[in-house]
Write a structure and sequence with these properties.
Elements lengths: L8 E6 L14 H15 L4 E6 L7 H6 L4 H25 L4 E5 L8 E2 L2 H9 L3 E5 L9 H12 L3 E6 L20 E2 L1 H6 L7 H9 L4 E5 L5 H6 L5 E4 L3
Parallel strand pairs: 1-2, 1-6, 2-5, 3-4, 3-5, 6-8, 7-9
Antiparallel strand pairs: 8-9
Helix pairs in contact: 1-3, 5-7
This protein binds adenosine-5'-triphosphate and the ligand O=c1ccn([C@@H]2O[C@H](COP(=O)(O)O)[C@@H](O)[C@H]2O)c(=O)[nH]1.
Family: Belongs to the UMP kinase family.
Pathway: Pyrimidine metabolism; CTP biosynthesis via de novo pathway; UDP from UMP (UMPK route): step 1/1
Subunit structure: Homohexamer.
Length: about 240
């Protein structure tokens, strides 16, 4: 691929659920290795890459709350799940020779560095992939919100949401098979139409900071790099 990348610094939100592959739970190392290779390809284009990884393959706080458990404890467990995924992804990236640092919103200094904006920017400028673990560090949020927050803090030019589907549809395509797919939308349209591919707080934060959101399938090998040069299949959410 010879085209010049569209962005100098991006934030990838990598689906946690994707990491379990065809298993019902946990981490399929082959899948993590493949996603790491896709990130390495974008890094090789000299793009600075931050990554927020979800935790849906291991734990979501709402699952506890729906069974009568304590939501905050459930969310703490979900945040820990994102740290597990971040460590797995960092391991796969390092195997490929990609300099990578994990920064967690929840302090656990024996395992990884704690997040600070200053440290993160420093790592990015030195060419390291930075994986933001622990979400926002607060319950009642999701890693989509963490992605929008870290993108704003890092001055990222775009959020790339690598998820289970290849874009934003008129309804959840997993539930409504004849839902239609959008090529482009504005942040307001995503919010006003109630398109639930990303949570409201995340879309609102991206809108306030004029950060485009590009939704694509993380299951398509090489798609991340294609999108960086304006190719590939995705829905683009932007102000105009
Ligand atoms: N209008 C819509 N267009 C596209 N997908 C939608 C829409 N509404 C709901 N969805 C669903 O949203 C899902 C993405 O949500 P979510 O962020 O929870 O999953 P994820 O990317 O796997 O993240 P994680 O596992 O890290 O939480 C898609 O897989 C899709 O089924
Ligand atoms: O800022 C955050 C981010 C995440 N959580 C909890 O973690 C899980 C997993 O994240 P997903 O975005 O769903 O993949 C989430 O369901 C929350 O329980 C959080 O509390 N705060």
């Amino acid at each position: 691929m010879t085209s010049k990348p569209l962005f100098k610094r991006v934030l990838l939100k990598a689906s946690g659920e994707a990491l379990m592959g065809s298993q019902g739970f946990g981490i399929d190392v082959a899948v993590v290795d493949r996603i790491a290779a896709d990130i390495a390809a974008v890094r090789a284009m000299d793009v600075e890459v931050g990554v927020v990884v979800g935790g849906g393959n291991i734990f979501r706080g709402v699952a506890v709350a729906s069974k009568g458990g304590d939501r905050v404890t459930g969310d703490h467990m979900g945040m820990l799940a994102t740290v597990i995924n971040a460590l797995a992804l960092a391991t796969s990236l390092r195997k490929l020779g990609v300099d990578t640092e994990v920064l967690s919103a929840v302090s656990m200094p024996d395992i990884c560095q704690s997040f600070s904006q200053r440290a993160a920017l420093n790592h990015l400028k030195r060419g390291r992939v930075v994986i933001f673990a622990g979400g926002t560090g607060n319950p009642f949020f999701t890693t989509d919100s963490a992605a929008a927050l870290r993108a704003a803090e890092m001055g990222a030019e775009a959020i790339l949401k690598g998820t289970q589907v290849d874009g934003i549809y008129s309804a959840d395509p997993k539930k409504v098979p004849d839902a239609t797919r959008y090529d482009t939308l504005t942040h307001d349209e995503v919010l006003n139409k109630g398109l639930a591919v990303m949570d409201v707080a995340a879309v609102a934060l991206a809108r306030e900071n004029s950060i485009p959101i590009i939704v694509f399938s993380i299951h398509e090998e090489g798609e991340f790099a294609k999108i960086m040069v304006g190719e590939g299949r995705a829905t683009i959410v932007r102000d105009h």
